[in-house]
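Thread: "does anyone have the structure for this chain?"

Original post by V.I.:
We have the sequence but no experimental structure in hand. Need at least a predicted one for the grant figures.
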Amino acid sequence: MKIRFLFGYMGRETAMKAYSEGEIVDLAHQAALELVQAGIAEEVTEFVLEPLPDAPKIKKVKHVTDK
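Reply from O.Q.:
Generated one for you, tokens below.
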């Protein structure tokens, strides 16, 4: 699981390796999950959201009924 550290951290989840704020690493899922739940890191997703294309313009049509 890829995570981004929200501040510098070194602990058992990282095998006592120090990481800096903003650093992105790929850790074992359970260790990464513990860091995210503790508020030390956030999950990094692989996809990027792009803006939606402009919505198509809808013409207003006046309905005429013949009587």
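V.I.: this helps a lot. Helices lie at 29-37.
O.Q.: and Residues 2-43 form one domain.
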